[in-house]
Amino acid sequence: MNMHTARAAFGFDTLKTILGIPVLAIRWDEAIALLTRLIDERRFTKVSFLNAHNANLACTDAVFAEALENFLILPDGVGVDMAAKLLYGAPFPSNLNGTDFIPAFLQASSHPLTVALLGTTRANAEAACARLSTLAVQHNFVVIHDGFFSAAEEPAILERIARLRPDVLLVAMGVPRQELWIERHIDSRHCTLPVAVGALLDFMSGSVPRAPLWLRRLRLEWLFRLWIEPGRLWRRYIVGNPVFLWRVVKQKLSLGPRPVEARR
């Protein structure tokens, strides 16, 4: 399932196109039900998330933008909410950021699943695996490999994934590498739901701290991350956020909301 089949399943009103990328506009509980149904029906579906940073990358990287066409895209963060409100008059029904949504989805899934982890450092992947195992004891979590593998190691990694054939494959390699890797290498022989999760495993391992809950509720977690990692993230937020909003305003003024049915 990608956005084209999601369109048929959910109708036009459930998709909001942000800078040319259709994003599913559904509630938290509906998203959990959707992913659960896809697994139950063994419908191979690539899943990713759109935030301001990803949208900016897609505007300048045609290969990444093309890859996203084959993903089910969920909304992540205050930036895309602001864009949706400007373009469509209302924000997304829920902030389905992977850091919160994926653990919640796994906790809510009562049917035992096999969940494979691929990416980050080995230590962080193992720690995240242990943490997820305590949060969702009904599932079997397996670390496949860290994210620092060579092309020569790739066939063995893919063979291991195919042998395991997990229900969910969490790929944590950073944007856009994780989406491009999934697009180029993962199909229905490997798993049912490959999910590009960014820094989720680093957060779950405890090696990267989350913002306090009150700051997250104010939708200011990005400010906390910038404070923690200024050298790595200043360009993404200080430069990227205004550029993203400028692009959204430009879309609003020049074209208005781009109809999803125009994408083929």
UniProtKB/TrEMBL annotation:
Q: Which CDD domains match?
A: Glyco_transf_WecG_TagA
Q: Which InterPro entries match?
A: WecG_TagA_CpsF (IPR004629)
User: What are the entry keywords?
Assistant: Glycosyltransferase, Transferase
GO MF term (any one)? hexosyltransferase activity
Q: Does the keyword Glycosyltransferase apply?
A: yes
Chain segments annotated as coiled-coil in the UniProt record: none
* Pfam entry (one): Glyco_tran_WecG
What is this protein identified as?
Answer: Glycosyltransferase
What organism is this sequence from? Mesorhizobium hawassense
Lineage, please?
A: Bacteria, Pseudomonadati, Pseudomonadota, Alphaproteobacteria, Hyphomicrobiales
